[in-house]
Records
---
Amino acid sequence: MPHEDSPGAAEEFGSLLFSVLSFRVYATAVRLGIPEAIGEEVRTGAEIAAATGTDEPALQRLLRALAGQRLVESRGEDAWALTGSGRQLLPGVPGSARDMVLFYGDPLTWQTFGALEATVRTGRTAFTEVTGSAFFDHFAADDVYARRYHAAMRAGSQMLAPLVVHGYTWDKAATIVDVGGGDGTTLAAVLAAHPTARGTLFDTAEALRDSTGVLEAAGVADRVELVTGDFRTSVPEGGDLYLLKNVLHEWDDEDCVHVLRSCAAAAAPGGSVVVVASLLPDAEERMDPAATMYAVVSDIQLMCLSGKERSRSGYRELFERAGLTLSEVRPLPFLPNYHVLVATAA
Ligand SMILES: C[S@@+](CC[C@H](N)C(=O)[O-])C[C@H]1O[C@@H](n2cnc3c(N)ncnc32)[C@H](O)[C@@H]1O
């Protein structure tokens, strides 16, 4: 009966609205530098407002909301300290969500998500509608945004790397080419666990600019060759394994088939292509509901920024079109939406 349904629907709407605003509160705190303004001390609202150049009464209300999200805690009247979760948002904490929050909370990303309606109406990518250029093409004109994106990707990779290391038998390959490998966080973790393997890190020049430090910190720099280029043109030759982690979902089918074909052609005899990706469920597939939720929401963000998520059969079709055969699919440990898909020459 309608009147019985209403309270549930209102509650659901309330939590939806608040989840959007909760993220905004979180992102605003990071963008304003509130974690750094508090640091390890106990600060008053006036001190935090002075350090962040903000309006004190408005900031007090934000601090109250941050306390509700357990990022700060009250230590008495107008005395604020970071909680353990709040300290995770200080700069330079490995594996923290800070850089992801900065990218997803960036006004341009936010404006792009705001154009979802236009994308659903027209089928055109929201990011292109908003900026006039394709996602990666925009980076040449906006280095701050490019850096934010790469930092967010590094944060994601730092979280996933241990699972990726344990999610596949990497020691089958003597040489791993990480195509679109970003700053090398994933390749560094794989090579650190496999001391005889060598790697090639292939990406754009701007993505590789911090890679030497990442590889040196992991103690693998002497086993990695850095190669800059455009994977839509070619990929480095002669690897035993071509890794594409979180890469294909940013491209349309034609580009993906082209990149996969290039990898297959460049691989040493008997080589393989390994895709690490979040999977949408196939029509009849039963997938963990949380994993499905992650994949469908991720697909919406890709529809706005660039690309799309695919199901297992979607990837199988791409491999087949590129002359490869999908030979193995393994879920990553502890993360049921992420899978390792292994393909070999047909
Ligand atoms: C989502 S990130 C994934 C990075 C890394 N594989 C990871 O999992 O953290 C996609 C990567 O593709 C790279 N990329 C985008 N277009 C490229 C192109 N045309 N040629 C080479 N790399 C490209 C980006 O610079 C970025 O590092």
---
Amino acid sequence: MSVLFSPVALGSLTLANRIIVSPMCQYSAREGSATSWHAIHLGSLALSGAGLLFTEATAVSARGRISPGDLGLYDDANQEALDRVVRDIRENSGIALGIQLAHAGRKASSREPWAGGALIPQGMGGWLPQAPSAIAHAEGEPPPEAMTLEALEDVRRSFVASAKRAVAIGFQAIELHAAHGYLLHEFLSPVANRRSDDYGGCLENRMRFPLEVFKAVRAAVPESIPVGVRVSSTDWLDHLDCESWTLDDTIAFSLALKSAGASWIDASSGGISPRQKISVGPGYQVPFARAIRKATQMTVFAVGMITEPWQAEGILAEGDADCVALARAMLFDPHWPWRAAQALDGTIPAPKQYWRSLPAGTGRIFGDIAISQR
Ligand SMILES: Cc1cc2nc3c(=O)[nH]c(=O)nc-3n(C[C@H](O)[C@H](O)[C@H](O)COP(=O)(O)O)c2cc1C
């Protein structure tokens, strides 16, 4: 019996299998509102058979967008547009839907990656990014605005407001983005946080704002909606003579999140500094997932260069993680879970319109129940 194709509970939400479509920015929204691209992109992934499909990082304020094309959920127009996409998906797929809520912090106001990704100056379509401290992400960039206590309150409220909108749309799970050098990660890491108030300095102080945001969101949405957190398990700056965010810090943060009711930790890494040195390879972040899971006994997602069905199965069978999140492999092959089901004798719910897709001579691709009728 495949572990990948066994159910898993995130709080009171049970996923049919342990394949998760990782959040992926599309930079294709207008004023934060989803477009026909989102209907096509998310629609295609909704037929993937994955246990859970996450939206891309969805900004909780216009200022918290990475780029002008970021998806947002900060006004009624955003909510209406995303609601339309979700309604279409719901008519055609039973996939569990999650949303990743994010604030880009000092990495806001940037060009789309295909346009080079550089900061957009104010007055040229850009805006002034906010961050824990007025320290630029990269040398030569203008510094962001250091957030006042009022600004912290404002962002906390924005996370709560977006979470409520997400619940109203029908999202079944919420992930807070505290990774990749965006705002919540910037508070955690001493590389970006040099505050001298209660929100900077020691680890406890640096964790304060992300934990406040988590607790506020957790308290604002129904118990039935699990809330989890994506973390950068390390800043990958050990080669430098500077203080940075480490795996031990991540474990301390995860334990605090566990006490606050977090339903999972999504173990990513990096993004706080262009000086990071990452050793990339198949499953390169799995050791972080394993360490966090062992130390916290929490539900943990492994992510990063997980591309093969047996690799995914091995990660779960070894107890390194509870779920695997895939990004690029899902873009390349939106039916990756079907292939995985074929390899591991799993069962995937397939839409009836596709039932004739079974390639001749390949046998039962969907396990004992040839194709589930959902
Ligand atoms: C096109 C693209 C967009 C991404 N956008 C996000 C995002 O919105 N939020 C996030 O947490 N990670 C984002 N990521 C990172 C992925 O979720 C994932 O962690 C990373 O790509 C490693 O997994 P992979 O090797 O399966 O692609 C993005 C990755 C890609 C390729």
